[in-house]
Specification:
By secondary structure, this protein is of the alpha/beta class. It has 2 domains: 211 residues, Enolpyruvate transferase domain (UDP-n-acetylglucosamine1-carboxyvinyl-transferase, Chain, Alpha-beta prism); 198 residues, Enolpyruvate transferase domain (UDP-n-acetylglucosamine1-carboxyvinyl-transferase, Chain), CATH 3.65.10.10. Helices cover 29% and strands 23% of the residues. It is built from 12 helices and 22 strands. Strands 20-21-1-22 form a 4-stranded mixed sheet. Strands 2-13-15-14 form a 4-stranded mixed sheet. Strands 4-5-7-6 form a 4-stranded mixed sheet, with helices on one face. Strand 4, helix 3 and strand 5 form a beta-alpha-beta unit. The longest helix has 18 residues. It is globular.
C-alpha cells in the first residue's frame, strides 16, 4: 500500500461489488470513558479494572499518556474529548499541578462552560494567556458535589466529564443542564458506563437533570470489554449505499449496543441497507437501489454520523437535508463549512444554515479532480474518500487524520477497493 502521510492524495475505487469482513476499531468514546473511570477507581480504591479491546486511536493514546502525568505541560493536539475529560479529572486530584494545551484548532473549541462548572465546585483552574481559551493551569484539589449548573448546547462532553469524576467528589452531584442539550446519546452512554462500573446514575426524560450517587465498591467489575465503534461503521454503510452490491461483516459490532450511534442501522434501512445481528458481529447487505424514501434526518443527538450520511445521499443522488447539526461547528473542523465546500467542488447545489445542510443530490457538472480540503478532520477525510465509489477519482488534501479515530481505515477501505495514491 502507498505511504499514508500528510500530503495531497488521490483516491479511486476499483470495485462495484463489495464483499468483505471489516475490522472496525474499538469505540473511542467507550475507551476514553473507561480510561477515566478506571483512573478514578484506582485513585479512590487502589484497584484496577482490566480493560479489554481498548482503542488504538490517537485520541485514546493521548489520553492514556496524559493520565500518567501529574505536572508539567500536556499537549492533547486536537482531542476535544481528552481535553474536557482530563480537565475535570485533574481538577479533582489533590496534588496535581499542570498545564493543558492543544492545537490551534483546539484553542478555538469550547471549554469555558466546563471550567465554570468545575470552579463552582471548588476547582483551581486559571487561564494562562487569554480568558476562555487554552492553555489552562490546573491545581488539583478535593471538589464538592451538590447542585452544579452546566450548559449543554455546545458539547455533551461537559456533562459527561462531570459525571465521570463523580466518585471523587465529597458528596453526590446533581447537574442542572441549561440551554439546548446536544448529543444526548453520549450522555446516555456515560450513564450506562457509570452504572456498569457500580455508580448509580439518574437522567431525567428531558436530560436537563443528571444525578449520580456514591459508588458501590462491591459492584466494580474486574474486566470491561470495549465494543467495536458504530461511528466508524458509518463510512462502510456509506460505501454499501454507493456500491452496486454489498455484503459486509463487522466483527464485534452489536445492534443492541450501549452506543447511541447504533441508530445508524435503523436509519440506513431507508437507504436500502439491511443489518442483521450474527453471533460474533453485524452483517449488512444492500437489498435495493436507494430511492428518496427519506430526505432529512435530525442529527442533534448523533452528530458524528452526519458526514457519512450526507456524503452517502449525495453520491447516491438522493436530495437530502441534515438538520440539528449546529454542534458540528465545534468539532475537529467547522464541519458544516467543510462538507459544504467539498460538495460544492463536486458540483452539488448546497445550502447551509447554522443548524442545517441541504443538497440537491445532483452533480451539475463533471468533477475535474479539484482538491477537497479535509481541514485535517478524520470524519471529513473518511466521508469524502468513500465517495470515490460514486466518482471516477477523489483528491484530498491529506490522509493522515484518520488515525484520530480509525487507525486502520485505509487497510480496511482497501478490502472494498478503495485505492490511495
Amino acid at each position: 500500500m502507498a505511504k499514508v502521510g500528510k500530503t495531497k492524495v488521490n483516491i479511486s475505487s476499483s470495485k462495484e461489488v463489495l464483499i468483505a469482513n471489516i475490522n472496525l476499531p474499538a469505540s473511542k468514546s467507550i475507551s476514553n470513558r473507561a480510561l477515566i473511570l478506571n483512573a478514578v477507581i484506582q485513585y479512590k480504591f487502589g484497584k484496577s479494572i482490566s480493560l479489554k479491546n481498548l482503542s488504538q486511536a490517537d485520541d485514546t493514546l493521548i489520553l492514556q499518556k496524559a493520565l500518567k502525568q501529574a505536572s508539567g505541560t500536556i499537549h492533547v493536539d486536537n482531542a476535544g474529548t481528552c481535553l474536557r475529560f482530563l480537565c475535570a479529572y485533574f481538577a479533582a486530584i489533590p496534588g496535581i499541578d499542570l498545564v493543558l494545551t492543544g492545537s490551534e484548532r483546539l484553542l478555538k473549541r469550547p471549554i469555558q462552560p466546563l471550567i465554570k462548572a468545575l470552579q463552582s465546585m471548588g476547582a483551581q483552574i486559571s487561564y494562562v494567556n487569554a480568558d476562555n481559551s487554552l492553555p489552562i493551569r490546573i491545581k488539583g484539589t478535593a471538589l464538592k458535589g451538590g447542585i452544579v449548573q452546566v450548559e449543554g448546547n455546545e458539547s455533551s462532553q461537559f456533562i459527561s466529564a462531570l459525571m465521570l469524576i463523580s466518585p471523587l467528589l465529597a458528596e453526590p452531584i446533581t447537574l442542572q443542564v441549561s440551554n439546548k442539550i446536544v448529543s444526548k446519546a453520549y450522555i446516555k452512554l456515560s450513564q450506562t458506563m457509570l452504572q456498569e462500573m457500580g455508580i448509580p446514575c439518574f437522567i431525567s426524560n428531558e436530560y436537563n437533570l443528571v444525578r449520580t450517587e456514591l459508588i458501590k465498591e462491591d459492584n466494580i467489575p474486574e474486566t470491561y470489554t470495549i465494543e467495536a465503534d458504530w461511528s466508524s461503521a458509518a463510512f462502510f454503510y456509506e460505501a454499501a449505499v454507493l456500491a452496486d452490491k454489498a455484503d459486509l461483516f463487522f466483527e464485534n459490532l452489536q445492534l443492541n449496543s450501549i452506543q447511541g450511534d447504533a441508530i445508524l442501522a435503523n436509519w440506513m434501512e431507508n437507504f436500502g441497507i439491511k443489518s442483521i445481528q450474527k453471533e460474533t458481529g453485524v452483517a449488512i447487505s444492500k437489498i435495493k437501489v436507494p430511492t428518496p424514501i427519506i430526505n432529512s434526518l435530525d442529527f442533534t443527538n448523533h452528530p458524528d454520523l452526519a458526514p457519512a450520511i450526507i456524503c452517502a445521499s449525495a453520491g447516491a443522488s438522493i436530495p437530502f437535508c441534515a438538520m440539528g447539526i449546529d454542534s458540528l461547528q465545534f468539532k475537529e473542523s467547522q464541519r458544516i463549512s467543510a462538507i459544504a465546500k467539498g460538495l460544492s467542488l463536486l458540483h452539488y447545489q448546497v445550502q447551509t444554515t447554522e443548524n442545517s445542510l441541504c443538497h440537491d443530490g445532483l452533480a451539475h457538472a463533471f468533477y475535474q479532480n479539484s482538491c477537497l480540503e479535509t481541514e485535517d478532520d478524520h470524519r471529513i477525510t473518511m466521508a469524502f474518500a468513500i465517495m470515490a465509489i460514486a466518482q471516477s477519482n477523489m483528491v484530498l488534501t491529506e490522509s493522515h487524520s484518520v488515525k484520530k479515530s480509525f487507525p486502520n481505515f485505509w487497510e480496511e477501505a482497501a478490502k472494498i477497493g478503495i485505492i490511495i495514491r
